[in-house]
C-alpha cells in the first residue's frame, strides 16, 4: 500500500512521512539535526526543529535553479599575450607645420626668457626646464630651432606624438629678449571604423573616443585599442593615424574583424544532486551582439531525470565605459526521484529574478576593477504527495506553513582582475543584505529573508610552461545567522570537492580551497587540440549558525586526477576521478557518489 493511502489525516500523514525519512536514515534524535549523515540525509538533511509541530528539512532540491549572483566565479581563461603596439597602431609621428621666424638679420641673440604658450598638460616650470639650456647665452638661428624641437620632443617622449611646437613670427631686439614658442596640441578630427558587420561602429568609436581627448596621447590610444582587442566581440583590431585637414588634427582609421557572436553550446555532465538525477543535459542559446550594441542574450534549458529549469538573461552596455544593465529570470521544477524517497512525491517549484548594474571603475589591459549592485528576489514552493488528494506542504528549512519560501536581497559586489602574459588573478567580493520587502519570509527565529552574508572568491591561473597550468581557487562565506537554503554554502561535487556527491554539505558558513595542475600529454595541431593530465586536491569546511548543530563530518578532502581534452573552442571534455579522504557513510549508487565525474561541452558553431 502506498504511503499516501496510509495517511488519513494531515497530522497522521505528516507523522508517517517524517517517520519514513527517519527510519530510512537510521537516525537518532541528535542526528536529525545534522546536515550530513546517511544517504537519506544527504538527500533530505534535517535541520534544527523550531517547534515540535514543525520539523524542517534542508534539502538540495530547494537549491535548484541558481541565479547568476549565487553561481561560482567562472574559471579564468589561460593567460594570453597582449598584442604588441606596432600591430595595433603602426604610425609615424606627425607635427604641425613650422612658420619661419623673423630675426631682423641678427646672427645671434641672447634669450632671457622663453614663453611657451598653448600647453594644457605641462606646467610652466616643466617647460622652463626644457628650454633652460638655451637661455642667457648667444644662440644662433639653428639653436633657436633646437629649443623649439626640444619642446616638441618633450611632448613626443610622453606619448603626445601628434603635438608639436613652432616659433611664430616675432621681432627679437633689445637686451631683454623673450621668445615665444607656441604649442599646437594634437587632436583627432575623426574616427572612421571599417570592417563591422552587425556591431554598430559607434560601439568602437565611442570607446576609443574616451581615451583620445585633446591632446591626443599615443599611450592612451593604444590602451583603448588593447581593451578592444580583449573584447570578446572582436577577433582583431588595428588602427592607423594620418594627417587631418587642419594643423594638429589627425584622422584615425580603424579596421576591425568581428568575432562570432552566436553560440549554441550543448553541455552534458553528472553535476546535479542524485536526489533529482545526476545526469544533466543543457542546451544554451547565446548571442553576444543581439541588436548590434554589444548586448548579450542568454537562454538556457537544463534537464535531469527529475528536474527541468529554464534561464534567461539580457545584458546591455549603457555607456562607453562598459557600464552594463542585466536582467535575469529563471524557473525550475524538481522532483525527488532517488529511492526510497521517490514514493513521497516531493516536488519543488522555484523561480528567481535579478536586476544588476555593473560599472568598471578601473579598466586597463592588464587589470580591471568593477563594482556593482544586484537586487534578487527568489521564490520556492515544495510539497509532499504532489498532485494527490493528500498533498502536503514540504517542511523546508525556513519555509512558512504552506511550504513557501520568499527571499528579497540586495547585493553589493566588487570584481578585480589582473592579467599578464603568464598569469591571471581574479577576485570577487559580495555583500548580501536580506530585506523584509515584497512579502519576504520572516520567521521568529532564523533562517529567514533578513540576514547579512559576505562571500569572497579568488582564482589564480599561472602558466608554468607551454600548455602547462597551475590553477588555485578559493571560496568562503560568512553570515551573521542561519540562512535559507537559497543562501547556504555547498560542498561536495564536480565544482567544489570532488570525491563526494553533489551538495554533501549544506551549511551557513563555509570555505573551499582547490589546487590543480594541467600537464600536456598529447598535442593535436591539425585540429588545434590538446589532451592534458590534471591531478588535483580539493578541501572544504562548513559550519552552521544560530544554534544549528554542525554537520558530521564538517571537513571534506578529496584528491584525484583527470583528463581534459580541448579542441579549439568547439569541444571541451573532462573526466575526473576523486578519492574521498573523509569518510561519509551511505550507499554509493551513482558514478558521482563513486567519485567519477564527466563533463562535455560541444559548440557546433565553433568548428
From TrEMBL:
The molecular function terms of the Gene Ontology recorded here are: protein transmembrane transporter activity
Q: Does the keyword Protein transport apply?
A: yes
- Which residues are the signal sequence here? 1-33
Q: Can the keyword Plastid be found in this entry's annotation?
A: no
The record places domain POTRA at 109-186
Q: Where is the composition biased (Pro residues)?
A: 69-95
Q: Which UniProt keywords apply?
A: Cell outer membrane, Membrane, Protein transport, Signal, Transmembrane, Transmembrane beta strand, Transport
Pfam families, per the entry: POTRA_2, ShlB
Entry's localization field: Cell outer membrane
Q: Name one GO biological process term.
A: protein secretion by the type V secretion system
The terms describing its cellular component in GO are: cell outer membrane; type V protein secretion system complex
Q: Which PANTHER family match?
A: HEME_HEMOPEXIN TRANSPORTER PROTEIN HUXB (PTHR34597:SF1), SLR1661 PROTEIN (PTHR34597)
Q: What is the protein's name according to its record? A: ShlB/FhaC/HecB family hemolysin secretion/activation protein
Amino acid at each position: 500500500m502506498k504511503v499516501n493511502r496510509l495517511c488519513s489525516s494531515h497530522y497522521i500523514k505528516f507523522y508517517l512521512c517524517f517517520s519514513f525519512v527517519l527510519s530510512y536514515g537510521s537516525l537518532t534524535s541528535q542526528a536529525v539535526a545534522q546536515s550530513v549523515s546517511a544517504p537519506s540525509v544527504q538527500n533530505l538533511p534535517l535541520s534544527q526543529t523550531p517547534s515540535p509541530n514543525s520539523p524542517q528539512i534542508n534539502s538540495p532540491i530547494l537549491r535548484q535553479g541558481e541565479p547568476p549572483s549565487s553561481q561560482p566565479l567562472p574559471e579564468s581563461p589561460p593567460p594570453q599575450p597582449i598584442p604588441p603596439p606596432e600591430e595595433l597602431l603602426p604610425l609615424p609621428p606627425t607635427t604641425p607645420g613650422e612658420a619661419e621666424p623673423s630675426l631682423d638679420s641678427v646672427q645671434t641673440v641672447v634669450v632671457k626668457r622663453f614663453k611657451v604658450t598653448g600647453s594644457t598638460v605641462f606646467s610652466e616650470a616643466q617647460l622652463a626646464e626644457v628650454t633652460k639650456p638655451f637661455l642667457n647665452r648667444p644662440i644662433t638661428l639653428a639653436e633657436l630651432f633646437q629649443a623649439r624641437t626640444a619642446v616638441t620632443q618633450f611632448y613626443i617622449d610622453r606619448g603626445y606624438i601628434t603635438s608639436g611646437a613652432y616659433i611664430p613670427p616675432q621681432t627679437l631686439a633689445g637686451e631683454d629678449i623673450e621668445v615665444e614658442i607656441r604649442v599646437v596640441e594634437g587632436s583627432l578630427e575623426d574616427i572612421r571604423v571599417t570592417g563591422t558587420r552587425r556591431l554598430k561602429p559607434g560601439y568602437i568609436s565611442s570607446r576609443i573616443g574616451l581615451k583620445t581627448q585633446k591632446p591626443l596621447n599615443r599611450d592612451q590610444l593604444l590602451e583603448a585599442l588593447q581593451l578592444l582587442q580583449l573584447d570578446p566581440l572582436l577577433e582583431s583590431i588595428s588602427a592607423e593615424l594620418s594627417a587631418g585637414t587642419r594643423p594638429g588634427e589627425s584622422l584615425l582609421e580603424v579596421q576591425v574583424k568581428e568575432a562570432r557572436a552566436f553560440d549554441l553550446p550543448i553541455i552534458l555532465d553528472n553535476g546535479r544532486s542524485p536526489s533529482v538525477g545526476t545526469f544533466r543535459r543543457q542546451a544554451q542559446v547565446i548571442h553576444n551582439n543581439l541588436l548590434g550594441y554589444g548586448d548579450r542574450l542568454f537562454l538556457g534549458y537544463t534537464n535531469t531525470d527529475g528536474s527541468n529549469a529554464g534561464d534567461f538573461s539580457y545584458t546591455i552596455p549603457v555607456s562607453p565605459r562598459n557600464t552594463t544593465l542585466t536582467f535575469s529570470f529563471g524557473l525550475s521544477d524538481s522532483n525527488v526521484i532517488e529511492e526510497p524517497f521517490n514514493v513521497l512525491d516531493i516536488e519543488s517549484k522555484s523561480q528567481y529574478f535579478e536586476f544588476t548594474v555593473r560599472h568598471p571603475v578601473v579598466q586597463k589591459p592588464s587589470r580591471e576593477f568593477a563594482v556593482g549592485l544586484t537586487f534578487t528576489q527568489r521564490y520556492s514552493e515544495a510539497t509532499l504527495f504532489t498532485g494527490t488528494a493528500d498533498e502536503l506542504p514540504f517542511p523546508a528549512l525556513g519555509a512558512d506553513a504552506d511550504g513557501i519560501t520568499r527571499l528579497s536581497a540586495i547585493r553589493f559586489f566588487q570584481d578585480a582582475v589582473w592579467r599578464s602574459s603568464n598569469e591571471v588573478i581574479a577576485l570577487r567580493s559580495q555583500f548580501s543584505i536580506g530585506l523584509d520587502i515584497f512579502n519576504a519570509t520572516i520567521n521568529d527565529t532564523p533562517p529567514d529573508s533578513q540576514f547579512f552574508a559576505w562571500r569572497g572568491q579568488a582564482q589564480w591561473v599561472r602558466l608554468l610552461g607551454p600548455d602547462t597550468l597551475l590553477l588555485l581557487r578559493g571560496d568562503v562565506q560568512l553570515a551573521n545567522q542561519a540562512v535559507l537554503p537559497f543562501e547556504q554554502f555547498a560542498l561536495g561535487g564536480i565544482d567544489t570537492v570532488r570525491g563526494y556527491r553533489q551538495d554533501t554539505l549544506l551549511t551557513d558558513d563555509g570555505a573551499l580551497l582547490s589546487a590543480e595542475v594541467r600537464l600536456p600529454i598529447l598535442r593535436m595541431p591539425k585540429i588545434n587540440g590538446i589532451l592534458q593530465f590534471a591531478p588535483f586536491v580539493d578541501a572544504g569546511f562548513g559550519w552552521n549558525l544560530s544554534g544549528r548543530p554542525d554537520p558530521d563530518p564538517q571537513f571534506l578532502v578529496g584528491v584525484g586526477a583527470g583528463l581534459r581534452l580541448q579542441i579549439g573552442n568547439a569541444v571541451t571534455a573532462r573526466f575526473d576521478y576523486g578519492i574521498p579522504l573523509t569518510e561519509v557513510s551511505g550507499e554509493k549508487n551513482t558514478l558521482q557518489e563513486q567519485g567519477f565525474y564527466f563533463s562535455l561541452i560541444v559548440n557546433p558553431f565553433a568548428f
